[in-house]
Every structure is written in C-alpha cells, then in structure tokens.
Design a protein that fits this description.
- The chain has 282 residues and is α+β, with helices and mostly antiparallel strands.
- A hairpin with a 5-residue loop joins strand 1 and strand 2 (212-219).
- It has two domains: 14-170, Up-down Bundle (Four Helix Bundle (Hemerythrin (Met), subunit A)); 187-276, SCP2 sterol-binding domain (Nonspecific Lipid-transfer Protein, Chain A, 2-Layer Sandwich).
- The two termini are 32 Å apart.
- Helices cover 48% and strands 10% of the residues.
- The protein is globular, with a radius of gyration of 19 Å.
- The longest helix has 23 residues, at 143-165.
Length: 282
C-alpha cells in the first residue's frame, strides 16, 4: 500500500471499495429471478446487465495490473468519439455476459473484488493516471482522482440496482459523500462557458446528513471550487436532494426534471448551468 504522509489525498476513496463490494455481493445474493431481470434507470440495461458491467471494471483493472490493456481504440478524434467507443465496448461485454448465470456473476464479482482493490491501493495517488477524468475537463489526472472516479462508477451503478429492486443501503454519509464530492469536481468545467461577474458565487447544497455544501466562484482565470463560503451572499443558490443529485449527474433524469425538484434562489440563469453537469462518460 502506498502512503503519502506529506500530502493529503483530496478525496479518499480507496478504502471504501471493499466495503462497497461486500454490500454489492450481499445485495445480489438477496435477489430473486424476477429482480435480476428488472429494468433500471439506465436505458436498455437490466439489473443483471449492470452487475455484469461492474464485473467488467474489475476485470479491466486487474488486466492493467498485469500490464495488459487490450487493443487500443482507433480514430478517437473527439470526446464524443471516446464516448461512442466506450459505449460499444460496454455493450459488447454486457451482451456476452448474458450467457452466464447470476450465480456465476456473484462468484466472479466476489473473487475479483479484492485483487481490484489491491491494485488501486498499490498506486501512488499523485502519479499520473492511465486515464484522465474527461468529464471534469482534464487531459491528465492524478491517480487519486481517477480512483475517485472509479468509486463514483461503483457507487452509482450499485445504487441503480438498489433503486430498481427497492433495496436501499448505500445512501449514507460514509459512502455517498465521497461520490458526490467527486462529481462536484466537474463543476468548473461545466461552467467554463458561463458568463459571470468577477467574484460571482454559486452555492450548491445537497440536503440531508449525507450531503454538504459546495462553493463555485468566478475569478480571473475562470470558475473555481473554493473550500469555504467567502462571507458574501450567493448570486445563485441551489438545493437538491441526494436522490435527485446522483440521478442528475449520471443522466438518470433530465435536467428539466431536476430543476423542478430543486430549490433555487437568486440568478436562475446562473444556477441553470449546474444542471448540465454530467459526471459520467456519456
């Protein structure tokens, strides 16, 4: 395990993967045949499809640990090209996994969970990641951010399953807050083309004990997340629930639906940009 004593990791998630995987295994073991075939908020994917996708992320990371990455993508000229490539890659895997049983999926998720976690733990959090967090506008990312991104994938896909079968269990401070805190790192990129006066402040509140407050301010170089409220009134203030937040940022609901579910004070046009944040490759 790598230990960086002199630099705090901005968002600590690596210790949560094992917890989340154990909860996933317990959840999947509790499902009946009807549950496995239920549709989810993710278009075209059933509960079983999402479980298969979660296995894919384990397997690919373990392959990376073994210095294997498969064939590189061709003709990636834009962000949309990359999204299309990833969607096709995911679809091929999920289609192939249709032929294996739910019990096999559980067994594979259980056996690959620890090697996957061990690989992430072995990484220097401040080294350059193999993949940039593109939805945050980064061309190069440090490992801690890519690991946090992977955590958001694990969390929101498990939540999609839980939502479909009505079995809550991970919407709490320990597991949800690191996910939403990572999502919020995409706000400056989402606001990059949004005009605002120098010093303009947008506050975002995710309600309940699982959520928190985030502050986005316009400075001379653009919009930046700041750690604390600057002692001035917000130009736009937005409050949404955790349930609305995770669905919005993963394209589970449309922005106009989320806006209807939100409380907005101040400049509504300035606030509206927040609802365009997409924190997945889509």
């Amino acid at each position: 395990m790598f230990c960086a004593m002199d630099r705090p990791v901005p968002i600590q998630t690596v210790h949560l993967f094992g917890i989340l995987n154990n909860l996933l295994i317990d959840l999947l073991k509790s499902l009946n045949e009807e549950d496995w075939n239920k549709p989810t908020i993710s278009p075209l994917w059933t509960v079983k499809d999402i479980a298969a996708h979660l296995l894919d992320t384990n397997m690919r990371s373990i392959a990376t640990a073994n210095n294997y990455s498969g064939k590189p993508p061709e003709n990636i000229q834009s962000y949309q090209d990359l999204v299309t490539y990833l969607n096709e890659l995911n679809a091929v895997w999920v289609k192939a996994m249709d032929r294996i049983s739910p019990q096999q999926l559980i067994d594979l998720l259980q056996s690959t969970g620890k090697p996957y976690e061990d690989y992430l733990t072995s990484l220097n959090p401040f080294d350059s990641a193999n993949y940039a967090v593109s939805w945050a506008g980064e061309e190069h990312s440090e490992n801690w951010f890519d690991i946090a991104r992977q955590y958001t994938e694990k969390w929101h896909h498990q939540q999609q399953i839980r939502d479909a079968v009505n079995k809550p269990g991970i919407m709490n401070r320990e597991l949800f807050y690191p996910c939403i805190d990572t999502f919020m790192r995409g706000l400056p990129h989402a606001y990059r083309n949004t005009p605002g006066k120098l010093g303009a402040l947008v506050t975002i509140t995710i309600s309940t004990d699982a959520g928190g407050n985030w502050y986005l301010q316009k400075n001379t170089s653009g919009w930046k997340l700041i750690q604390q409220a600057p002692g001035k009134s917000a130009d736009a203030a937005i409050t949404i629930t955790p349930d609305t937040a995770w669905k919005l940022f993963t394209k589970g609901i449309k922005p106009e639906i989320a806006i209807q579910q939100a409380t907005i004070h101040g400049d509504k046009k300035l606030a509206q940009t927040m609802f365009s944040l997409v924190a997945v490759m889509a």
